[in-house]
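Appendix B. Raw example, untouched.
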Amino acid sequence: MSGEGPTLRRRRLGAELKRCREAAGLTQEQVSRRFEWHAAKVTRIETAKVSVTPRDVRDLLDAYDVHDREFRDAMVEMARSSRERAWWAEYRDIVQPGSFISLEAEASAMRNWEPVVLPGLLQTEPYMRALFSAAAETGRQMRIDRAVALRRARQRRLMTGDYPLELFAIIDESVIHRPIGGESVMAEQLRHLIAVSELPTVTLQILPYSVGAHSMLGTSLAILEFHEAADLDVVYVEGFGRSPHFRKQPAEVCRYRGAFERLRTQCLDRGRTIEMIEAVARGRGQCPELV
């Protein structure tokens, strides 16, 4: 789970093909008609919804009057490598190409705001199981086991490998008070949260109750950043009463990043965040070694 993978390569390729098409003055509809493709195929290639064959890339570059041999070879090789099997393909029964998981797997950093529960990358297994069990759509034990295994696999990027994920996480104060799974599960979770916050890849901050109303009430947010391809950064937004959705336009990503950073200025710093978690643990008798 390290380095640039097939999802990011497919997004790079789509962006380059779109740039070439626009430079040639062609619309997606014109290209589709030329090759007698389904009307949506060019759109799906450019938005990385589907993988594209090396032959299709050559044909598209011919149509766009792109003849630079070095560039063409690089694009064809990108098409080949974008079709490689990613580590998360082992979980293809619960993960789809182009999903949040496939993007997170190749991101350099993530900025995550969670108002209700802990970020998945910081959860213990009992905490995960309590959440999955509470969701009607994941009530079957086998599916819960698969979801837990996937989340634990995702967490390894915080701790190991040559390409770790840098996590900037903000949680609402209510999250550390909500006893997901009961007191014993939350006891373990709080201890884990204190330990994982010491990782060099993790910056954890709490937004205290005293802040009151703010711009992201009722919304959870994850900004996935790709340091070698900043123009491909993406925002994943979930809100009460609305379906989760991606925001990929650079202007929108910039707007959400600004909102996240403004929220950080209202948070406790790392030291005071840990002090608050320890205080909650002591208050519940969950962390006797801190007494």
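End of appendix B.
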